[in-house]
Amino acid sequence: MAKSTAENTFLRLKTVLDVLTEGVWSGDALNAGQVLAEATARVPFNEHEAELLSGGIPRGHKTLTSATAKLVKAGWLVKGRSGWTITEDGMRATVAYPDAVSFATALDAGTPVPADTPVPAAPAGFVRKTSAVAEIPAPAVAKAEPKKTARKTPAKKAAAAVGKAAKVIEDAVEPVVKAVRKGKAPAKADEAAAAEPFEGPDVETHPQPEAVAVAGDFNTLLGAPENWAPEYDEAQMEFDFLDQLWKKSAELPAGFYTFKIALNRSWDENYGAFGTFDGPNHELHHDGGTVTIRYNHSTRDITIN
Q1: Confidence tier at 194 by pLDDT (50, 70, 90)
Q2: What confidence tens digit (pLDDT) does each residue in 237-258 have?
C-alpha cells in the first residue's frame, strides 16, 4: 500500500478504471458502490483514511468518491443513472499510465492518452476476481452486523461502510459531475467540492501559487545575490505533488537564522511564524548540515527538520 494518502487516492482512481475494464472483459456490471468498494479493498485505507466522518463515512471513501469527478472530466468515465461506464480512452489510460505518479500527472494536467495506445484486451484465461466486500450488495454492507465479537481493524470497519458511503457521497457530488459534463462552472454551493476534491490535511487539492520562496537572512548562502529577496531562483521551493507540500533543502552552517515564506516572487503575500500573514519571522536554530523547510499552502503550516 502506498504511504501517501494522495498517492493512495490516485491508485484507487486507477483501480476504479481497472475494475470497470475487467467488467467489460467479463460482461459483468457492478454498480458504483461495488466499484468503489473493490477499489478500496485492493488499495486499503491507511489509518488517516479509515477515520469515520459524520454519518459513518470513512474519510478515504469520501476523498475517492469526490475525486472520481476527475475521471469524468478527463473523459475516461461516464456516470449515468444506470451506473458507471468506462470509455475506450479510460481503458487505454490504464495502459498508458500504469503507475500512480504518471497516472496522477496525466489526470491533473488533462494529458490526452497517446493515440497509439491500444485498448487492453482480456488476458488468456481471464477470470474476474472481486473481493468479498464488492460482492456484497450495498444495503447489506451498510446494515449487516457481525455475529461474532471479534475486533475489526480500522480498515475493515471502514470497508464495511462503503455501500452506505457510496450513495451518500454520490448524491453530494452529482451536481459537480453534471457541471463538468456540460463544461459549466459548478453552483456556488459546490465550488469547494470542485476546487478541493480531496479530504484530509495531508491530501488537500488546493490551488497552488506559481512560486514559493524561502526568503531570509541566509539566501546568499544558497547562491542568491542578496538576502530577503524572494525573486531569485536560489530561494525558490519545489512542489512535491504526492505530499502536496513545497520543500526546500539546503546545506547551512551552524547558526541562528530567520526567514519568511513569500509567494509568487514578491512580498505581496507572505507568511511568518504560525502561518500568520505578514507575521513575525520564522526562527531557525541550526546545528549545521542539511535542513529541509516544508510549506503547506492549504494550511499555511511551515515545518523544519
Answers
A1: very low
A2: 988 766 778 999 999 999 999 9
Residues 99-142: tens digit of each pLDDT:
888 999 999 889 999 999 999 999 988 887 666 443 433 333 33
Residues sharing a CB contact under 8 Å with residue 175, sequence separation 6 or more, in sequence order: 186, 187, 189, 190
Cβ burial, residue 8 (10 Å; 0-12/13-18/19+): buried
**Residue 52 near residue 157, CB atoms below 8 Å:** yes
Residue type, 228: W
Residue type, 294: R
224-227 long-range Cβ contacts below 8 angstroms, 24+ apart: none
Residue-averaged pLDDT of the chain: 77
Q: What is the pLDDT of residue 175?
A: 47
CB crowding 77-113: b at 16 or more within 10 Å, else e:
bebeeebbebbebbbbbbebbeebeebbebbeeeeeb
The letter for the amino acid at 111 is T
Alpha-carbon distances of 102 from 7, 46, 96, 98, 116, rounded to whole Å: 11, 22, 9, 7, 17
Query: In Å, how far are 40, 225, 230 from 215, measured between CA atoms?
Result: 42, 12, 5
- Cβ count near 184 (within 10 Å): 9
Q: What distance in Å separates the CA atoms of residue 170 and residue 148, rounded to the nearest whole number?
A: 31
Quote the pTM value.
Answer: 0.49
d(CA 42, CA 36): 10
Task: Please tell me the distance from the alpha carbon of residue 192 to that of residue 206, in angstroms, as a whole number.
Answer: 10
* Residue 192 confidence (pLDDT): 35
